[in-house]
Input
Amino acid sequence: MGRYGLVGLSGVLVNLGLLWVLTRWLPVGNPNAASAVAIEGSILWNFWLHDRWTFHDRVEATVRVWSRVLRFHTVAAFGAFLQWATFAGFNDFIACATSLVPHAERAVCDTSGIERVIGTIASPPEVGAFKYGSQMAGIGLATMWNFIMNTRWTFRVERSDPG
Output
């Protein structure tokens, strides 16, 4: 669990660092797109470290690296969606249910249902530094999912039947 946590912490730093670079220094205008790219960057980073360090004793020579990457990405795809949906949902909540964001940034709040969901995705509210808290909440949920599934499926230890 210790190595998994350290890799995860380094992945959080990669994730938040990429989010910061993409929203501050590169021309990625949509924070939802920047979040998605940051998530993918941290997924690749985490796989590399888990494969080489955390679960190196579970990696079978007969299982090709691309097979492990595919399994890791299958697990991470749901974790990434969970993280991204939390990011978008929390930002929507911060913009619409609190007075933490200027009214001019809350145009999507006047809609409801599918129109609101699409509006939040297509034109997300700017919530300033609160976006990092939203990203952290999503990272927390995704980490729990990823740990359970990666230890039980991606890097599981195959037990031979003694019978």
In short: The two ends are 31 Å apart (CA to CA). The mean pLDDT is 82. The longest helix spans residues 65-97.
